[in-house]
Write a structure and sequence with these properties.
Layout lengths: L4 H8 L26 H12 L1 H4 L4 H14 L3 H9 L10 E6 L8 E5 L6 E9 L2 E8 L8 H5 L3 E6 L4 E2 L11 E9 L2 E8 L3 E6 L4 E7 L6 E7 L2 E7 L4 E6 L4 E2 L4 E2 L7 E7 L2 E7 L4 E6 L4 E7 L6 E9 L2 E8 L3 E6 L4 E8 L5 E9 L2 E8 L3 E6 L4 E2 L5 E2 L4 E9 L2 E8 L4 E5 L16 E9 L2 E8 L3 E6 L4 E2 L4 E2 L5 E9 L2 E8 L3 E6 L4 E2 L4 E2 L4 E9 L2 E8 L4 E5 L4 E7 L6 E9 L2 E8 L4 E5 L4 E2 L13 E7 L2 E7 L3 E6 L4 E2 L4 E2 L5 E9 L2 E8 L5 E6 L4 E2 L4 E2 L4 E7 L3 E6 L2 E7 L1
Antiparallel strand pairs: 1-62, 2-31, 3-4, 4-5, 5-6, 7-8, 8-9, 9-10, 11-12, 12-13, 13-14, 13-15, 16-17, 17-18, 18-19, 20-21, 21-22, 22-23, 24-25, 25-26, 26-27, 26-28, 29-30, 30-31, 32-33, 33-34, 34-35, 34-36, 37-38, 38-39, 39-40, 39-41, 42-43, 43-44, 44-45, 46-47, 47-48, 48-49, 50-51, 51-52, ...
Length: 740
């Protein structure tokens, strides 16, 4: 009897039971179904881990949507549909399905996210404790705007068991002032930790029993520390903010000799190395200079200049072809390799990050030296230092800047640890990569969405902080062509418009330009229209039968543009005291109008025929009006607005708020849209920041309909699509939801 390959694949890789994923403890793969080994079970585990830090405290009913979304982000739409259809006891069936989503932030490695810190994770080191790999992380919170709980985490050091992914004990917070730097060392055969605060004093901890076993005094403020060995004894190098290099003997807990001077003030990078058998230190300063110091003589013995005068933010050392090298990164968004024997740069700068390189460490993989970097662009990347090239796609993609990186061997596999500005820590397994087939999308935050129709098919156009415009075939759930490089930086606003019977989109950006695009050809139409200030918002509107755009600027003014001629119409409309965050077109008494929302918390109505404000500003939001959507109720023009955590409905004829605010979001409402469901008008709202939910509101009752939908990060934008669908932008991703 013969078995065809497809049937054999099904028998050897049966679909796992997705109901277990709704109740399993995040990060504990053992609680997932073991009856389905192989790629499918591994994919289920990856989906379970991806947003575990978000869904770990959610009920199974609330978790279901987020897990389905993450399945779609991994490129498996069928698995997303199965998760959505999974029954949950005492819960109604899911009201929304996930049709498809991009996976720009899935990363190339399977990851687990650790949570606990409330502030940026500025340092991460790994060590071995009781024969198991452990991680030590440091969070620094020094912004007086943080709340009491976050302030208590200032300088908090946390220890994690990397095998279980769980925190070990309470944070180490003995210092009366916050810890600024840390290093892992071995003393007397036992793992120890050194923590140093800004003033220069330090503590030595025995990590086995978590006791303080010594104190250190630098005699100067300390910017960075690094462990080294001198005369066979463990030492700690410290760089002060006033331009001096000190050395501690960790056995005696004393400062060795006088600190070396001559280091540039505001030194930000430090690493230790052995050069010609002698201990050396590598420092990097804010002027782009890398210096080499002999720690035995405490004298500078070399100088390497990046040539950019941008700050050197991080440094690490390794051996390349048996010779000591340093790797540095900084404000020029590049990684540089230096031969410490010749003090010369090796090869060209390694580029890939789209912001500062904030952190670097080195690791040997398959006998070859590699570097791992963390950047302000939210990515952790792997580099082969023999070829000076990036290895594959980013290892991990965070929502915010990666401030620290480390590596660890967990069960024989190399893992990358990346600490984020938002307080999360991601542990990514480099072995085998992430399962699934994530669809690429934006490489930075999505900032705007608009829907257009081309030749009878529905498309969406998205703009992002990566400066690109992307066209999506909504039926295929895939990009239509390559991204278009548009504005020089962030595309803040996108709106559809019809010109000569053909669909177009108009965009506005940080570069203070307004641009017109033909989405069918993906080409710009005419020259950019240059405004006097960055364009934050825009809408398209017809005036006297001709297509126009109205743009909201950061200086509080609005400009009207004739899109046929590409010229400005009249003088800017002024009234807002701060940035015009949102603007939408409507008609009132048969005349074209726009409604604008500002950073000053006001809503204003403008007659585009006279270009004058109509009546007094509408007030009610506690602060910025971030988003507006227009609709018609009972034949009268209305708008729905969001901003201060509330959604509000306004009658433009009376210029008054209708009923009480719609409440439920726990952070700013950054995007709203209006759609019709079952013959009734509804508003869809997206909460930014820590809220990270999409909610549906019945505009007749002004009550929330059903359960809110949780996302891995704050919502950035959303748009209603044909067929009762909604496209949501969150982080670097977009997802299309469909009403079931």
């Amino acid at each position: 009897m013969s078995v065809d390959p497809a049937s054999l694949s099904i028998m050897t890789n049966p679909e796992p039971d997705v109901t277990a994923i709704l109740t399993a403890t995040p990060g504990r793969a053992g609680e997932l179904p073991a009856a389905a080994p192989g790629p499918r079970a591994r994919l289920l585990e990856a989906v379970h881990r991806l947003s575990a830090h978000v869904h770990q405290d959610l009920s199974p009913g609330a978790r279901r949507h987020l897990l389905a979304l993450d399945a779609a982000r991994h490129g498996d739409r069928a698995l997303a549909a199965r998760i959505i259809a999974a029954p949950v006891p005492d819960e109604p069936p899911a009201a929304w399905g996930v049709e498809w989503a991009t996976g720009s932030q899935v990363g190339s490695a399977m990851s687990t996210t650790l949570t606990g810190h409330h502030g940026p994770v500025m340092a991460a080191v790994t060590t071995e404790l009781d024969g198991r790999p452990h991680l030590v992380t440091l969070s620094v919170v020094d912004d007086e705007d943080f709340d009491d709980e976050e302030a208590e985490d200032e300088g908090a050091v946390r220890v994690w068991d990397l095998t279980t992914g769980e925190q070990v004990g309470a944070p180490l917070t003995y210092h009366y002032e916050g810890v600024h730097s840390l290093a892992a060392v071995e003393l007397d055969g036992r793992p120890h930790l050194v923590t140093v605060r800004r003033g220069g004093s330090g503590l030595v901890w025995d990590l086995t029993n978590r006791d303080i076993v010594g104190e250190l005094q630098a005699g100067h403020s300390v910017a960075e520390i690094a462990a080294t060995v001198l005369d066979g004894r463990p030492h700690l190098v410290n760089v002060g903010r006033q331009g001096d290099v000190g050395l501690w003997d960790l056995t005696t807990r004393t400062l060795v000799g006088r600190p070396a001077t001559g280091v540039a003030e505001r030194t930000e990078a430090l690493a230790a190395a052995q050069v010609d058998g002698r201990p050396h230190a590598v420092t990097g300063d804010r002027d782009g200079v890398v210096r080499l110091w002999d720690l035995t003589t405490r004298e500078q013995v070399g100088e390497m200049v990046t040539g950019t005068r941008m700050p050197v933010k991080c440094a690490a050392t390794t051996l390349v072809d048996g010779r000591p090298h340093a790797v540095t990164g900084g404000g020029d968004e590049a990684l540089r390799l230096w031969d410490l024997t010749t003090c010369e740069q090796v090869g060209r700068p390694m580029t890939g990050h789209r912001a500062y390189v904030e952190a670097v460490t080195t690791v040997v993989i398959d006998g070859r030296p590699h570097a791992v970097t963390g950047g302000g662009d939210g990515t952790a990347r792997l580099w082969d230092l023999t070829t000076c090239e990036q290895v594959g796609e980013p290892v991990a993609v965070h929502e915010n800047a990666v401030m620290s990186v480390a590596t660890a061997d967990i069960d024989g596999a190399v893992h990358v640890v990346s600490g984020c500005q938002d307080g999360t820590v991601r542990v990514s397994n480099l072995t085998g990569g992430s399962p699934g087939d994530p669809q690429a999308g934006h490489t930075d935050h999505v900032s705007a969405i608009a829907q257009v129709g081309i030749d009878g098919r529905s498309y969406a156009v998205t703009g992002g902080e990566d400066g690109t415009l992307r066209l999506w075939d909504l039926d295929a759930g895939a990009p239509a062509g390559e991204p278009v490089e548009t504005h020089q930086s962030t595309v803040w606003a996108v709106a559809p418009v019809t010109i000569d019977g053909r669909p177009h989109v108009v965009t506005g950006g940080v570069d203070s330009t307004v641009r017109l695009w033909d989405p069918d050809t993906r080409e710009q139409v005419g020259a950019p229209m240059t405004d006097e200030d960055p364009v934050w918002s825009l809408t398209a509107v017809e005036i006297d039968g001709r297509p126009h755009a109205v743009t909201g600027r950061t200086d509080g003014a609005m400009t009207v543009w004739d899109l046929t001629t590409g010229t400005r119409v009249g003088t800017p409309m002024t009234g807002h005291d701060e940035v015009v965050r949102s603007v939408v077109a409507t008609r009132l008494d048969g005349r074209p109008h726009v409604v604008s929302g500002g950073g000053d918390g006001t809503l204003r109505l403008w007659d585009l025929t006279t270009r004058e404000q109509v009546g007094e500003p509408m007030t009610g939001h506690a602060y910025q009006v971030l988003t507006i959507a227009a609709t018609t109720i009972g034949g009268r023009p209305h708008v729905v607005t969001g901003g201060d955590g509330t959604v509000r409905l306004w009658d433009l004829t009376t210029r008054e708020q209708v009923g009480a605010p719609m409440t439920g979001h726990t952070a700013a409402v950054v995007s709203v849209a209006v759609m019709e469901l079952d013959g009734r008008l509804h508003a869809v709202s997206g909460g930014g920041g820590s809220d990270g939910t999409v909610r549906l509101w019945d505009l007749t009752t002004r009550e929330q309909v059903g359960r809110e939908l949780r996302f891995p990060s704050g919502i950035r934008c959303l748009s209603v699509l044909p067929g009762g669908r909604v496209m949501v932008g969150f982080g670097y991703e977009v997802a299309v939801l469909a009403r079931l």
